[in-house]
Amino acid sequence: MGSKDHIRFVGRGKTKIAMAIALFALLLASVAIGVGAGKVSAQSAAPHFTLNSVVATTTGLNLRDQPSASGKTVAVLPLNAQAIVAGGPFNDGWYWLNYKGTKGYANGVYLVVVDASYKPIPTATATSVSTATPVATSTATAIPPTSTRVAAATTATVATKPRSTDVAATPAAAVTPDYTAPTAPGDYTGLWLGELIYGGNVRTGPGLDQPVLKSWGVGRRVLLYQAVTDSKGGVWYRVSEPPEGPMYVHSSLIRKIEPVKFQGARYKGKWVEVNLAQQITTAYVDGTPVKVTLASTGTAANPTTPGVWKIYWRLLSQEMKNGNLGSPDYYDLKNVPYVQYFQMSGEALHGTYWHDDFGRPRSHGCVNLSIPMAGWFYGWAGIGTIVYVH
């Protein structure tokens, strides 16, 4: 996000009117090309749906009152629920849907069009939450890592996986939890990167009796900050870190990808690492990590620039706009929070309200963070803080 938003060109002509108009038009065209290719905002890989088409969900999905993961839930759509497209796309692939008379917004990456080739996702093999029992053992080996460039929750991936609400419907040996995860907040020793192998609920605490906060689909990346056992012996992972609110996912829904890699004392004092391979942003004091979070950096088409940079401009909030109304990647995002520019082409750390798919490349070059984490980095860092991108 944020590339070249702040750059403006003003055409000036002092001779003949016709020449001035021609030069001004040429300058406008060059700006449109430069900004359109800029690295300004995360754009979704969501498919395109036409107005009044019928779509179906590929996982349990919240219908929200605004096109953002931070919107209030107005309805919960179960797997294979069908709705009518009433508008969109908005804000990075969100669509306005009419579900049985209730209208709200949903992310298009979790939708498929209902046409002659549509087949509902099988659910007959799913094990009931009330009967599924995870096995508490630490003998499982890590599953080989997958590419960080694969889009999350694609229709094909979801279609091949059974889905249950909280507990995986697979043989227990395939989903044994890892007890080597940290056990206390702020302890990043043994921190692992993980991935959801089944779509499921994110709860505010470890246990089926805890409130459901939201649902995530297959492929959503997570950091396994803490392993917690509930009152019935089930193992849950805490997948958020303060100042984010508490979020827990049952261990059977997650597989390990690889350990989080830290840099040591590369620089003195406060500095920030952006790991493009792992899609992780870390705040350090000397060689000690003091905050670790998932991020979404630039896609292959608009990569985040590797190098050693310094924060040079900060804004509590900013409108970020790219291209023009006719361009395929046009967007106009109001009130992007906690913006910290570190690279002169316009790449920045900032908060993100238009997607909740951190851990995957999604931006036009900026480093997308959750809003609470972006606020923490804004309060912690300052002008001149080193940002090491690699």
Textual characterization of the structure:
The protein is mainly beta. The protein has three helices and 24 strands. The N terminus is likely disordered.
Number of strands: 24
N- to C-terminal distance = 18 Å
Strand order of the largest sheet: 6-5-4-1-7
Rg over CA atoms: 22 Å
Helical percentage: under 10%
Quaternary organisation of the protein chains: single chain
Structural class by secondary-structure content = mainly beta
Beta fraction: 25-35%
The residue-averaged pLDDT reads 77
Listing every helix as H and every strand as E from the N terminus to the C terminus, the arrangement reads HEEEEEEEHEEEEEEEEEEEEEEEEHE
Q: Which spans have pLDDT < 50 for at least 5 consecutive residues?
A: 3-18, 28-44, 124-164, 171-175
Largest sheet: 5 strands, antiparallel
Give me the number of helical elements: 3
Question: Which descriptor suits the 3D outline?
Answer: globular
